[in-house]
């Protein structure tokens, strides 16, 4: 016995070495239960099985041979439910067993999600459950437990900064980025330098961006973007989107769109473009990005009031999605039968959009303005030979100017090439349309914000451009002024209209400040190599900056008054970015604004006094500050000097000379001979 | 204020230096020449020809000896009056910086970090009255980065080195070891400039800032941000003013248009940090600035080889209060 005993021990261990013990698969993960199947007599069982087989293999899972078990009663009729067993697919049979088991279980789980509530016919809707769920449901706690009350956490007031005393006085905030720093500053003009509100290091990994109403500051991180806001600059929300590069807010900041370049995106689960709800932080929907060649940003265009989001599809139709459901409007893309839409644009204030269909063989090009969601055509214009169009909305949506490009046919030598514009008066009844022409190619076009003026830079040569000003009058479009021989390429209107800054960006940086009230120039200035311009939301100041992204020398920014006086200039090493914080939309109507303008004198006194008081107070504080600084400095200086004097003996040992005024006094003896006077004394000889 | 322009050097100026009395101005340049001038009228007295680009000079307090560090890997000691070389020391690589200790009994000299050699501070004894020759005293441990300048601390107890990695390293001359590293700049520290009596010092850096420290506590008192690389600073011994000079080096300026305001020397209030004004004159980066010990004159030297002596007008002395070194004793 003893010998056997020992042998048996060895044998057992050896068997275990080369064959794992058989494990009984006690899991029912591969099984599903289908309820609500029709009650059928035995003769129809095979047909029912065939139908179920077809339905439950339609999602790609494979049902095991004889895997469908119909449960029968005593009369061999079905009881109204069935068990179905999934199995691994043929292709996977040879591979790892573990993964095969998974694939069957996944097919079962997939059936529960996607084939539940399958409408077999009017009376029978098939319900699917996992067999394993029996365990879960039999142990279900039937006692009701009220959910724990979540404590209400008030969100910070994102517009708090507007009630800051400095904001109430009309100062604005801006953000600058240089080196690793991101500074949020107040533009207190009487200080002559930015007043730093918050300075942080490494806040973002690429750049920062304000939202459209100025409520949030967006920072970029490898894993997504973060929004900051409120009084203490707390992080408001995080949006996880790996590799995010671009952000676009809806006009009223309710939603935002993020973009991350993804090399091969999965059409079933796109990761390129995502639309989010800003307040809740929830993902609304993801989209594929168009191919690189046709990619533009913003990828989607927002309608007014954040109502719709739209983009041109590759089939040249417009896909309009409703917020917040993100479903296609009327469940189909907006299209014009047999015609291809080349471009479209939403009105900035009304729920209407304009689209352009280029000219085809025998058909003229079409510019159409339609109302959404009714799709009623408000205006339409046919133009022969136009192949491209550019839409320019006035920011209150009152006017729309469309620049059309024609196929240039050089049959005969033309006098001067011209560019044609169509003007839609969108807020007048029946939408009258007019045309006007401008010589040469158009370099820049810009509407006066909330106004009726247009500024256009046009010309043939970079160094010799024209700047034309048009005004929309009751019946006509009138050329008001024309500047000649200008080296300018970009137009920046003050957000309050009337004044504008014309600049030669990305080049030598000529600036011209212009007043359209009297159509005269305030004067020209220069900011060498200027790469960007940003107007203060109040229209009183404008910033020109040189960004390290484009130019490596003398980066920094200048702040000018609207009339072109330099207020101050800041130079920073590795300066990247300058952005004024946008203010929310005007709450006042144009009428109310005008009444304030006429009663300006009444308010002026009050504000002047408050400014005076503030200035006095600030000057006093500043005086105090400087005095303290001087005191501190002198204390260090005098302490150091006292110590220096105390070490006189040590210095003597070293052989040091003392200050010039002490030891270098020497006496120089110089003999000076000078003829003081010559006196002639005539001695009379007395005889 | 009309500057006196000294036009002799054909290559960039590396250092301008007044002697202790402030009546002589020594100028070192890359054209291998050191020249000496009368401060009062800008009249040239003479010049000393070295074998290579002269990086750094110093003059003894009695104005008898001139020492030079040059790119021909030599440090020389000259007799100021006769222009004769009294002694030469050879290094393996270029000598970058040289300075007399207080009392002129020792000389420090910095050798460059090139060709496998480590940037090193060498200290020599110098018997000025009889031997008038260098003799090796000791070598400080190398930080293994390029040292642009080294200078003696108060009473020769320390040596401060400005380094290419943005650090200022402080060595103890007794223990002969590194005792402190100040890392406040993120680009090369180009120069360390002392105030009168070495009470404070200012570091200039390519990162566009200059920083003022208290020597005793090493506390950072003030930062001046100019946005342009700073090569040199001059601290007035008389007024609370500091002059900063610099500008983009020639190879990184890509503009076709020469903007003279880019290279102006700028006056700052040393306490308030305000920019008080600027002086246009140089058409290249300014490499060196020096005040006379009485604070009434300063000299600047630039990349284009121009040296300017500026004697302040009377109005300047009325402009701000003088610095009070010793508070009036109270009765």
Automatic annotation (TrEMBL), chain A:
The species is Dictyostelium purpureum (Slime mold)
Coarse class of the primary localization is cytoplasm
* Leader peptide range in chain numbering: none
One GO biological process term is: translational initiation
Q: Has UniProt tagged this entry with the keyword Protein biosynthesis? A: yes
Q: Which Gene3D superfamilies match?
A: 3.30.70.330, YVTN repeat-like/Quinoprotein amine dehydrogenase
Protein name (record): Eukaryotic translation initiation factor 3 subunit B
Q: Does the keyword Transmembrane apply?
A: no
Q: What keywords are annotated for this sequence in UniProt?
A: Cytoplasm, Initiation factor, Protein biosynthesis, RNA-binding
Biological role stated in the UniProt entry = RNA-binding component of the eukaryotic translation initiation factor 3 (eIF-3) complex, which is involved in protein synthesis of a specialized repertoire of mRNAs and, together with other initiation factors, stimulates binding of mRNA and methionyl-tRNAi to the 40S ribosome. The eIF-3 complex specifically targets and initiates translation of a subset of mRNAs involved in cell proliferation. Component of the eukaryotic translation initiation factor 3 (eIF-3) complex, which is involved in protein synthesis and, together with other initiation factors, stimulates binding of mRNA and methionyl-tRNAi to the 40S ribosome.
Q: GO molecular function of the protein, one example?
A: translation initiation factor activity
In terms of InterPro entries, this protein maps to:
EIF3B (IPR011400), eIF3B_RRM (IPR034363), Nucleotide-bd_a/b_plait_sf (IPR012677), RRM_dom (IPR000504), TIF_beta_prop-like (IPR013979), WD40/YVTN_repeat-like_dom_sf (IPR015943)
User: What are the subcellular locations of this protein?
Assistant: Cytoplasm
TrEMBL record, chain B:
Cytoplasm among the record's keywords?
yes
Instruction: Provide any one GO MF term from the record.
Output: RNA binding
Task: Report each WD repeat as a residue range.
Answer: 6-47, 54-88, 182-223, 279-309
- Which residue ranges traverse the bilayer? none
One Pfam assignment: EIF3I
Q: Which key words are in the record?
A: Cytoplasm, Initiation factor, Protein biosynthesis, Repeat, WD repeat
A single GO BP term for this record reads: formation of cytoplasmic translation initiation complex
Q: Fetch the Gene3D superfamilies from UniProt.
A: YVTN repeat-like/Quinoprotein amine dehydrogenase
HAMAP family per record: eIF3i
Q: What does the protein in this record do?
A: Component of the eukaryotic translation initiation factor 3 (eIF-3) complex, which is involved in protein synthesis of a specialized repertoire of mRNAs and, together with other initiation factors, stimulates binding of mRNA and methionyl-tRNAi to the 40S ribosome. The eIF-3 complex specifically targets and initiates translation of a subset of mRNAs involved in cell proliferation.
The name of this protein is Eukaryotic translation initiation factor 3 subunit I
């Amino acid at each position: 016995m003893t010998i056997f005993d020992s042998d048996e021990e060895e044998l057992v261990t050896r068997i275990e070495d080369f064959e794992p013990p058989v494990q009984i698969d006690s899991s029912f993960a591969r099984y599903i239960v289908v309820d609500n199947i029709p009650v059928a007599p035995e003769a129809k069982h095979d047909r029912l099985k065939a139908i179920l087989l077809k339905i439950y293999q339609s999602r790609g899972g494979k049902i095991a041979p004889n895997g469908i078990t119909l449960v029968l009663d005593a009369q061999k009729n079905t009881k109204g439910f069935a068990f179905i067993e999934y199995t691994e697919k043929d292709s996977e049979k040879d591979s790892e067993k573990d993964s095969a088991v998974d694939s069957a279980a996944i097919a079962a789980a997939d059936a529960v999600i996607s084939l539940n509530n399958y409408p077999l016919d009017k009376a029978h809707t098939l319900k699917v459950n996992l067999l394993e769920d029996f365990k879960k449901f039999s142990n279900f706690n039937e006692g009701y437990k009220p959910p724990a009350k979540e404590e209400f956490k008030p969100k910070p007031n994102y517009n708090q900064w507007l009630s800051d005393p400095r904001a109430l006085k009309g100062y604005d905030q801006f953000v600058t980025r240089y080196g690793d720093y991101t500074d949020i500053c107040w533009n207190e003009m009487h200080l002559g330098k930015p007043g730093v509100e918050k300075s942080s290091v490494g806040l973002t990994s690429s750049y920062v961006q304000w939202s459209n109403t100025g409520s949030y500051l967006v920072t970029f991180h490898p894993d997504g973007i973060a929004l900051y806001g409120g009084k203490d600059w707390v992080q408001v929300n995080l949006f996880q989107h790996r590799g995010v590069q671009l952000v676009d807010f809806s006009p009223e900041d309710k939603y935002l769109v993020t973009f991350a370049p993804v090399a091969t995106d999965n059409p079933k689960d796109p990761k390129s473009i995502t639309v989010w709800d800003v307040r809740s932080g929830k993902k609304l929907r993801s989209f594929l990005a168009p191919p690189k060649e046709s990619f533009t940003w913003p990828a989607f265009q927002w309608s007014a009031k954040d109502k719709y989001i739209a983009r041109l599809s590759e089939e040249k139709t417009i896909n309009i999605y409703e917020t917040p459901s993100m479903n296609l409007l009327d469940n189909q893309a907006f299209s014009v039968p047999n015609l291809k839409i080349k471009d479209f644009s939403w009105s900035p204030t009304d729920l209407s959009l304009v689209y352009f269909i280029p000219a085809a063989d025998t058909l003229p090009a079409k510019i159409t303005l339609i109302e959404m969601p009714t799709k009623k055509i408000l205006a339409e214009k046919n133009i022969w030979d136009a192949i491209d169009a550019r839409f320019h909305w006035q920011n209150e949506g009152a006017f729309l100017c469309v620049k059309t490009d024609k196929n240039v046919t050089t049959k005969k030598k033309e006098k001067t090439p011209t560019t044609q514009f169509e003007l839609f008066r969108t807020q007048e009844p029946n939408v009258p349309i007019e045309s006007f022409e401008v010589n040469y190619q158009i370099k820049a076009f810009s509407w006066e914000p909330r106004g009726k003026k247009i500024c256009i830079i046009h010309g043939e040569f970079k160094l010799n451009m024209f700047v034309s000003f048009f005004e929309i009058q009751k019946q006509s479009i009138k050329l008001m002024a024309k500047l000649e021989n200008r080296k300018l390429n970009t137009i920046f209107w003050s957000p309050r209209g009337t004044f504008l800054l014309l600049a030669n960006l990305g080049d030598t940086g000529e600036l011209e400040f212009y007043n359209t009230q009297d159509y005269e120039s305030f004067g020209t200035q220069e900011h060498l190599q200027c790469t960007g311009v940003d107007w203060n939301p109040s229209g009183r100041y404008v910033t020109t900056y040189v960004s390290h992204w484009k130019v490596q020398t003398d980066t920094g920014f200048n702040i000018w008054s609207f009339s072109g006086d330099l207020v101050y200039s800041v130079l920073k090493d590795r300066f990247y970015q300058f952005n004024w914080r946008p203010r929310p939309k005007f709450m006042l109507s144009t009428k109310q604004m005008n009444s304030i303008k006429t009663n300006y004198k009444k308010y002026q006194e009050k504000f002047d006094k408050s400014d005076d008081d503030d200035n006095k107070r600030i000057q006093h504080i500043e005086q105090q500050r400087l005095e303290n600084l001087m005191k501190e400095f002198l204390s260090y200086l005098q302490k150091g000097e006292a110590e220096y004097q105390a070490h006189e003996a040590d210095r003597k040992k070293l052989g040091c000379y003392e200050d010039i005024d002490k030891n270098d006094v020497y006496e120089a003896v110089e003999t000076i001979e000078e003829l003081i006077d010559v006196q002639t004394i005539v001695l009379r000889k007395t005889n | 204020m009309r500057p006196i322009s000294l036009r002799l050097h054909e290559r960039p100026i590396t250092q301008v230096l007044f002697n202790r009395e402030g009546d002589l101005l020594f100028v070192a340049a890359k054209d291998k020449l050191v020249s000496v001038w009368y401060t009062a009228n800008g009249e040239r007295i003479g010049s000393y020809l070295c074998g290579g680009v002269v990086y750094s000079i110093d003059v003894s307090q009695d104005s008898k000896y001139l020492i030079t560090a040059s790119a021909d890997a030599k440090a020389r000691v000259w007799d100021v009056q006769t222009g004769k070389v009294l002694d030469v020391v050879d290094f393996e690589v270029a000598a970058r910086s040289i300075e007399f200790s207080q009392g002129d009994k020792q000389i420090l000299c910095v050798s460059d970090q090139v060709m496998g050699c480590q940037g090193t501070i060498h200290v020599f004894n110098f018997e000025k009255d009889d031997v008038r020759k260098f003799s090796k005293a000791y070598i400080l441990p190398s930080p293994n980065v390029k040292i642009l300048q080294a200078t003696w601390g108060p009473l020769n107890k320390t040596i401060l080195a400005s380094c290419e990695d943005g650090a200022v390293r402080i060595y103890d001359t007794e223990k002969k070891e590194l005792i402190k590293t100040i890392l406040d700049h993120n680009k090369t520290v180009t120069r360390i400039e002392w105030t009168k009596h070495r009470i404070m010092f200012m570091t200039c850096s390519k990162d566009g800032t200059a920083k003022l420290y208290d020597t005793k506590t090493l506390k950072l008192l003030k930062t001046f941000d100019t946005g342009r690389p700073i090569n040199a600073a001059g601290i007035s011994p008389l007024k609370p003013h500091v002059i900063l000079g610099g500008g983009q080096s020639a190879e990184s300026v890509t503009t076709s248009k020469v903007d003279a305001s880019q290279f102006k020397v700028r006056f700052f209030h040393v306490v308030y940090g305000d920019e008080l004004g600027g002086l246009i004159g140089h058409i290249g980066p300014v490499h060196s600035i020096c005040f006379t010990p009485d604070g009434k004159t300063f000299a600047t030297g630039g990349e284009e080889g121009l040296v300017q002596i500026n004697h302040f007008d009377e109005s300047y002395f009325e402009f701000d209060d003088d610095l009070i070194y010793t508070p009036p004793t109270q009765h």
